[in-house]
Amino acid sequence: MEFKTKAALTEWANDQTMSENAAYYNGLPGVKPVKKFESRDMAVTRIWTAVSRDKPTWRGSLRRAARGNSPRLGRLRTR
Prior knowledge:
With about 80 residues, this protein is an all-alpha fold. It has one domain. It contains 4 helices and no strands. The termini are far apart.
């Protein structure tokens, strides 16, 4: 299942039981399994963090380029 926004994930999580949220989270790659979440908000936050960490961000590339550490973008000019 793919969520484009955190709001879409929240809507989905509200329709699931807490154990279903934990089961979904535990099925994500690279996460430490949990038995249960303290709250639905915590479940959404942890799931969103896990699924969005795989998505590339253009801001990170711009920050590296501004420092001159980006092999593809080179160094950005600043005025």
